[in-house]
Amino acid sequence: MELKDAIRGRRSVRKYKPTPVSKETIMELYEMASWAPSGMNRQNWFFVAVTGEYVKKVAEICHQGYKEYIGSKVSSVFSHKPQVVKETTSFFATLGGAPVVVFAYAEPGPESQFTDVQSVSAAIQNMLLAAYDMGLGTCWMTGPLNKEKEFNQLLGVEGKKLVALITLGYPDETPKPPKRKGVKIDLLGFDQ
Ligand SMILES: Cc1cc2nc3c(=O)[nH]c(=O)nc-3n(C[C@H](O)[C@H](O)[C@H](O)COP(=O)(O)O)c2cc1C
């Protein structure tokens, strides 16, 4: 696939087929993620991929987290779009049937957490584009981050900052591309 097609065509997928994703596929995605740029070349990402019973537990925690924190914000932002609220509520409870969830963590370093998170985000986007290229769907999620402690306990992770969860699996929907907003770039000094 052409890179530009991947960049334009990737969508957040919130409905998945139950088809399992192999360990080899996950490792290929990880390899793609690991070529991202990173502050001081620290390559400070750490991923945990879970499937099976773990995903059920992750979904339970997400559902609880949604009720406690992000749910009210979604309801308020999308008060004019009740269908979005309904679908989002359901997604947090079921994770759309995704067979895999990938947790993206930042290992803390000498720079600010801002830098740490940007490096991990670059790796996440690499992973999302590679997944799309391989026929897989993903959804980058920060909504459940209020449950970081519970996830760390479940996964046995310590001393790292949870940046995002990524649902992963073969898509069972073809989401429409959201409209791009107006041009948000100033071009200075080009026409001299
Ligand atoms: C930092 C970040 C956090 C996000 N968090 C969530 C989330 O918690 N739940 C969710 O359903 N989608 C989440 N998304 C996905 C966005 O809603 C999605 O990217 C956006 O609506 C544009 O759609 P597209 O990804 O199909 O282009 C997140 C995306 C990013 C980049």
Your description of this structure?
This protein is of the alpha+beta class. The protein has a single domain, classed as 3-Layer(aba) Sandwich (NADH Oxidase), CATH 3.40.109. It has six helices and four strands. Strands 1-2-4-3 form a four-stranded antiparallel β-sheet, sandwiched between helices. Helix 2 crosses helix 5 and helix 3 runs antiparallel to helix 4. It is globular. The mean pLDDT is 97. Bound molecules: flavin mononucleotide (FMN). Flavin mononucleotide binds next to helix 4 and strand 3.
Q: How would you summarize the topology of this molecule?
A:
Elements: H1 3-9, H2 23-33, E1 45-51, H3 53-77, H4 82-94, E2 100-106, H5 113-133, E3 137-141, H6 148-155, E4 161-169
Antiparallel strand pairs: 1-2, 2-4, 3-4
Helix pairs in contact: 2-5, 3-4
The CATH topology corresponds to NADH Oxidase
CATH architecture group name: 3-Layer(aba) Sandwich
Task: Give a short account of the largest sheet.
Answer: 4 strands, antiparallel
Low-confidence stretches: none
Q: What is the CATH class name? A: Alpha Beta
What's the pLDDT, averaged over the residues? 97
Bound molecules: flavin mononucleotide
* Number of helical elements: 6
Q: DSSP strand (E) fraction?
A: 5-15%
Approximate shape: globular
In terms of structural class, how would the helical and strand content be classed?
alpha+beta
H/E series, N to C? HHEHHEHEHE
Rounded to an integer in angstroms, the radius of gyration calculated over CA atoms is 17 Å
Termini separation (Å)? 37 Å
Q: Going across the major beta sheet, what is the strand order?
A: 1-2-4-3
Give the helix proportion (percent range): 40-55%
* CATH fourth-tier homologous superfamily: NADH Oxidase
Number of domains: 1
Q: Please give the number of β-strands.
A: 4
